[in-house]
Amino acid sequence: MSREACRKLADRLGLPADEVLEYFGERAAIREFDGGQARDVAEQGAMDDTRAAFAAPSLMGGERTGPRSAVPLASDAAAARSKR
Fold first, then answer.
1. Which of 38, 55, 57, 84 is the most exposed place for a label (fewest CB within 10 A)?
2. pLDDT of residue 2
């Protein structure tokens, strides 16, 4: 069931199914063997992990998409002074 869900997710997002299936398989194995979860529970959690990773890659990949810090960087301050 979860493998078919991975294929559907890949189709919906326009991604290679092999890539999504590989990620899912790795997450399921980690949850099962390292986490001690039963296989069906591990696959359910892995599907959630896979959806989160591929549907919102900026949340998993470390890309900053939110507002910048309220404190200006020194380089920003220097650039602003040079424009004056």
1. 84
2. 76
